[in-house]
Amino acid sequence: MPTPNFQRQNARSPRKTTHHSTDWRCTRCAKLLGVNRDGRMHLRFARGHEYFVSFPVWTVAVSTFKSETYRFLRLERPTPEELAAGTEYPPGTLHLPGWIDSEWLKQLVAEQLVTVRNKRGFARLEWQKLRERNEALDCRVYARAAAWILGADRWSEKQWDELERQVAAPGAEVGAGAANAARQSRSGRTTRPANQRRSVRSNYMR
Length: 206
What we know:
By secondary structure, the protein is α+β, with helices and mostly antiparallel strands. It is 34% helix and 14% strand. A three-stranded antiparallel sheet has the order 1-2-3. A two-stranded antiparallel sheet has the order 4-5.
């Protein structure tokens, strides 16, 4: 079965290769199958050859992120009066857009953590479906895992303010200072600045 062979290319190809472009050739006949240029694989399909393209693969601890999601959903939200007085949302609060419908919400809580026993009588925790459709929960878990991989858990308040500035509407005030100023104008009193987001670094997925 033909597989990528990068060493054979150096011996057969007349041109000099660099780290920016690497030919991908068949191990049987050295036929050019593709070119890896600037991190992208450009394939050249040919009859009689099989193609194996590898991509970075991450193992996602879905049970951990599902437990985190359900824990965040149980957080008590401040009332409008408390928000006007300067109370902050608890860290981890899930903010849902207004267009969310009941079907999406049912999908978000479509599983439950139960204790099951194997044939030897040992107990273990297992996530089981309460309904067939659970795409919203899966999307949340994979999005949370992607954020973890990007290091969002360790971002500073300055980085969050910069991201907020990039997506804010033109002329809108962003950042912790703008939020505190808005609360002061509503409540009529000075509020202390919000604490920075706590960064927790875990070795669970390493």
